[in-house]
Amino acid sequence: MPDGLPTEIDLTRPSAARVYDYFLGGAHNFEIDRQLAEQIASMTPNLAATMRSGREFLRRAVRVLLDAGIDQFLDIGSGIPTVGNVHEVAQGVNPKARVVYVDIDPVAVAHSRELLAGNELTGVIHADLREPERILAETQQLGLIDFSRPMGILLAGVVHFIPDGDRPEEILATLRAAAAPGSFLVISHSTFEDQPQEMLDAQRLSARTDTEITLRSRAQVTGFFGDWTVLEPGVVHMPLWRPDSPSDVDEHPERFGAFGGVARYDQPAG
Ligand SMILES: C[S@@+](CC[C@H](N)C(=O)[O-])C[C@H]1O[C@@H](n2cnc3c(N)ncnc32)[C@H](O)[C@@H]1O
Questions:
Q1: Is residue 34's pLDDT more than 70?
Q2: Is 174 exposed, middle or buried (0-12, 13-18, 19+ CB in 10 A)?
Q3: Domain 46-199+213-265 is of which CATH architecture?
Q4: CB environment 143-158: b (16+ within 10 A), e (fewer)
Q5: SUPFAM superfamilies given for it (predicted)?
Q6: Nearest protein Cα to ligand 1, atom 8
Q7: Is the per-residue pLDDT at 222 higher than 80?
Q8: Among the atoms of ligand 1, which is closest to the Cα of residue 75?
Q9: CA–CA separation, 57 and 95 (whole Å)
């Protein structure tokens, strides 16, 4: 067990964050995670590419927010800060950008704290997206994000861990209600739409981690933006969301298995 990790980690069960870290080429994972990752990879060889595609979508979305003047980010389900993390992208453009990371996984949180020690414009919170009020209260306590100003709320690859029974639409409504006009919401979310059977089978394996995935339709994902204005090109397969260059888009963008979208809170007139 590496130094500084919390003692409550259950090493007999794989963790979604560490499986993800393994796919991204990170070092913050254990044998149990690598075994599940390899099993998933043998069923769907392009899954590692899918995860990288998710990070790439997040990077492009964060840059669009930075261009719009956003300088504070609440990244929920942030994972292990492996490659191309939000604060690196944001502070690379605006050194004064502030980022609060939130994750349910104690390993992700411990590594985040270790990696971010000394970066005073970042904070880390150990919390569950199913408790949005707590996340908002703890974020306010940290004092990094000014809720009276626009912010970017990032929910990349995390809302699909919330089953319908935990009322994800209410969680999203709570988060949106806390944001000032001009704020942005970024979501990427796994889908069953346009997917081959082997992808659906692999997603089912996620039931072995602490957090099972609920695949959702484009209409359901779009619904999470509520009445905010969804930016062009809408909620689309992730590689199609404002690619850096048309040549970056895979011939089959649907094979990455997830939709991505960004919306802005435009204050209603009057
Ligand atoms: C697929 S990773 C995405 C990481 C990062 N957002 C990205 O896009 O690169 C999903 C992360 O969500 C976290 N997670 C899952 N369920 C969660 C919940 N209920 N509350 C907070 N985080 C959660 C997992 O621990 C994992 O780190």
A1: yes
A2: middle
A3: 3-Layer(aba) Sandwich (3.40)
A4: ebbeeeebbbbbbbbb
A5: S-adenosyl-L-methionine-dependent methyltransferases (SSF53335)
A6: 156
A7: yes
A8: 6
A9: 21
Residue whose tokens read 């998933």: 40
Q: What is the pLDDT of residues 128-157, one digit of tens each?
A: 999 999 999 999 999 999 999 999 999 999
The model carries a pTM of 0.89
What separation in Å is there between the alpha carbon of 107 and the centre of ligand 1? 12
Q: Is the CB of 109 under 6 A from ligand 1?
A: no
Residue 130 Cβ contacting ligand 1 at under 6 Å: yes
Protein residue whose Cα sits closest to atom 14 of ligand 1: 77
Return the number of other C-beta atoms located less than 10 Å from residue 177's C-beta: 11
- Tens of pLDDT, residue by residue over 46-78, are 677 778 889 999 999 999 999 999 999 999 999
Residue 160 burial (CB count, 10 A)? 24
The residue assigned the tokens 């950008």 is 97
Q: Which of 181, 168, 209, 196 is nearest to 33 (CA)?
A: 209
- Round to the nearest angstrom and report the end-to-end CA distance of the chain: 58
Task: Please tell me the distance from the alpha carbon of residue 109 to that of residue 135, in angstroms, as a whole number.
Answer: 14
Q: Cα 207 to the chain's mean position, in Å?
A: 19
Give 3's pLDDT tier (boundaries 50, 70, 90). very low
For residue 197, give the 3-state DSSP assignment: helix
Q: Tell me the C-alpha distance between 175 and 180, whole Å.
A: 11
- Give domain limits for the chain: 46-199+213-265
Q: Which atom of ligand 1 is nearest to 24's Cα?
A: 9
